[in-house]
């Protein structure tokens, strides 16, 4: 993190420069993501914790006085304190679950995946497959057979032409026409 650059951006952002605010947020992003990966709060999503960190960053920016303090130290302390307060308030609200908070140590941090899987990442491919199956169902019998043979069974187009008893050039036109129809049906 470039301290001088962040000081300059903080002063510009304090004067109302929105681009400087955005650049400052981008410069603090690795620090914030690192803190969020190491902190689990019961009832909070990863993005919620991340948003609390950014909220604390901008609150520190509003209270920042360039004559009294260095911004980076002030902001990092503010963000850490905000997370600590969040952890304390979370434990006060949830006395029944003693495992409501998990702060990862360096040892545990390397055993867990850094990438967070989201439901959408699994759901969208399944929806796309269902849409594709429905579109294939709307094709003519010969077109379905070609698509199944070439793309599902992963066989060469020449083998399909030979099996169907048609010239290879005809099977190429048939494949292209089938793919165009699929594209139209799906809406692409």
UniProtKB/TrEMBL annotation:
Domain RNA polymerase sigma-70 region residue range list: 26-92
InterPro entries linked to this entry: RNA_pol_sigma-70_dom, RNA_pol_sigma70_r2, RNA_pol_sigma_r2, RNA_pol_sigma_r3/r4-like, WH-like_DNA-bd_sf
Entry annotated with the keyword Transcription: yes
Keywords attached to this entry: DNA-binding, Sigma factor, Transcription, Transcription regulation
A GO MF label: sigma factor activity
Gene Ontology biological-process annotations: DNA-templated transcription initiation
Residues passing through the membrane, by range: none
Protein name, entry field: RNA polymerase sigma factor, sigma-70 family
């Amino acid at each position: 993190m470039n301290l001088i650059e962040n000081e300059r951006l903080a002063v510009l952002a304090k004067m109302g420069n929105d681009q400087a605010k955005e650049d400052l947020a981008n410069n603090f992003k690795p620090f914030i993501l690192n803190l969020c990966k190491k902190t689990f709060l019961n009832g909070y999503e990863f993005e919620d914790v991340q948003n609390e960190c950014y909220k604390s960053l901008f609150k520190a920016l509003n209270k920042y006085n360039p004559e009294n303090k260095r911004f980076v130290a002030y902001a990092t302390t503010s963000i850490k304190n905000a997370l600590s307060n969040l952890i304390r308030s979370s434990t006060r609200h949830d006395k029944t679950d003693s495992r409501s908070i998990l702060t990862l140590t360096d040892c545990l941090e390397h055993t867990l995946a850094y990438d967070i899987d989201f439901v959408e990442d699994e759901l969208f491919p399944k929806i796309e497959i269902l849409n594709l199956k429905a579109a294939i169902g709307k094709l003519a019998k010969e077109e379905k057979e070609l698509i199944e043979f070439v793309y599902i069974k992963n066989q060469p187009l020449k083998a399909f032409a030979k099996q169907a008893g048609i010239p290879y050039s005809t099977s190429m036109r048939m494949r292209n026409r089938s793919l165009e129809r699929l594209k139209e049906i799906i809406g692409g």
